[in-house]
Design brief:
With 312 residues, this protein is of the alpha/beta class. It contains ten helices and twelve strands. It is elongated.
């Protein structure tokens, strides 16, 4: 028998289909998880508090496979998992559809001044002209990150007539390598961040990168707040040296109510809601876990394994 410790929130979706060779404990509280973790060979330890989740992983000395619904891995002790020879499957792609839709929503919101229209409607004011004059058609976007989310963003923007230039390690036709995109920043109407949080991407959009962008460029971030130097972003927006920012992620989260980013001109913050703007997240994650469980039993490679050295 293989011993599994799994968050009880997913229990109704997976328990009826669990194989007989799996012995499962279900936790409903952090204390229960901390008690069960040392027995886990397979663990699904998801918690809202990422620090407590990391503590549980550290306590799981028998762990061979960690699974998670979360796409981000920056809260997990990857080096410890690697040292113990454990594998880690995450939720990369589970939320890709809704996040890609969120990017398009954000770009349209910024282009058309949609929030200004909503505010006018709430006041009962009939606007005589559109507050936003930009068209997505014919514009040019730099897409940093071409994983599951980035690929879907690319597909959707193609339908709007946006020229999308991607960045990825392998390069290719119409694709920039990681050492090429900074020199081209002045070409783009949109800069879209959809890449993982790693030491390599930490603060990659700083004062120099923001200064190199067009004065009317809009930054769209559905990656992580740490990818952007937030103080530099506030300064650029306050100085009207950047067209705007549509931010689903910030640093920290939640963003304090008195943080200057809330009142920064032409900035829209959507509170890291993009991935949860759907009703199928748990169903998709459960189906992925069950399929991987069969692969595990057959000794086959699991899908959506995290590269513990690279951090994504």
């Amino acid at each position: 028998m293989t011993h599994a410790v799994i968050n009880a929130l997913i229990r109704p979706l997976v328990e009826p289909q669990l194989p007989g060779w799996l012995e499962t404990e279900w936790f409903t509280t952090v204390d229960e998880l901390m008690d069960m973790a040392p027995r886990a060979e397979i663990g699904w330890f998801d918690l809202w508090d990422k620090g407590q989740m990391a503590t549980a992983v550290a306590a799981a000395t028998r762990l061979k496979w960690l699974n998670s619904i979360y796409a981000g891995v920056d809260h997990v002790p990857l080096a410890l998992l690697a040292e113990r020879g454990a594998i880690y499957t995450n939720g990369a792609g589970i939320n890709a559809i809704t996040i890609a839709e969120w990017v398009v929503m954000g770009m349209l919101t910024m282009a058309k001044g949609y929030d200004t229209i909503v505010a006018a409607g709430e006041r009962g004011e009939w606007l005589l002209d559109s507050p936003g004059k930009r068209e997505l058609f014919g514009s040019k976007a730099l897409l940093l990150g071409y994983g599951a989310i980035g690929q879907l963003v690319d597909e959707r923007l193609a339908a709007f007539g946006v020229e999308v230039v991607k960045v990825r390690r392998s390069g290719g036709a119409g694709v920039l390598r990681p050492d090429e995109w900074r020199a081209r920043l002045g070409e783009f109407d949109w800069v879209i961040l959809a890449l993982p949080a790693t030491p390599e991407t930490d603060g990659m959009i700083g004062a120099a990168e923001l200064a190199a962008m067009k004065a009317d460029c809009v930054l769209v971030n559905v990656a992580r707040g740490t990818v952007v130097d937030q103080d530099a972003l506030v300064a650029a927006l306050q100085g009207r040296r950047l067209g705007g920012a549509f931010l689903d992620v910030t640093e920290p989260e939640p963003l304090p109510a008195d943080h200057p980013l809330w009142s920064t001109p032409n900035t829209r913050i959507t509170m890291h809601l993009s991935g949860t703007a759907q009703s199928r997240m748990f169903q998709r994650s459960a189906a992925r876990f069950l399929a991987n469980l069969e692969r595990w039993h057959r000794g086959e490679p699991l899908e959506h394994m995290v590269d513990l050295a690279r951090g994504y």
